[in-house]
Amino acid sequence: NDCLSDRQSVLEDQRQNSQEKFYIPQCTPDGRYHKVQCYSGYCWCVYQDTGKPIPGTSSKGHTPNCNPVPPPSRPMK
Which residues span the membrane (predicted)? Predict the structure, then answer.
């Protein structure tokens, strides 16, 4: 799924359940995810192709620095 179709389906759900708060993904014009996503006071970095959160990047009250994107952490042996 790309960001724009995810966003569209969330907006559709929100219209049907107007009492609930939904996380709405922020998209770039070409349909990828914005590097920084925010919801209810928290912001975090995501992988732009998948929208999956990058572990360890969430912060409350300020925008995390998502440049450069940290490499996926390797488990210690």
Answer: none
Q: What is the CATH number of the domain that holds 8?
A: 4.10.800.10
Token pair for residue 23?
């996380």
Q: How confident is the model at residue 20 (pLDDT cuts 50, 70, 90)?
A: confident
Contacts 24+ apart (CB under 8 A), 40-46: 45/69
Q: What is the pLDDT of residues 27-62, one digit of tens each?
A: 999 999 999 999 999 999 999 999 999 999 999 998
33 neighbors 27 (Cβ within 8 angstroms): yes
Q: Is residue 7 part of a domain?
A: yes
Residue 35 domain-assigned?
yes
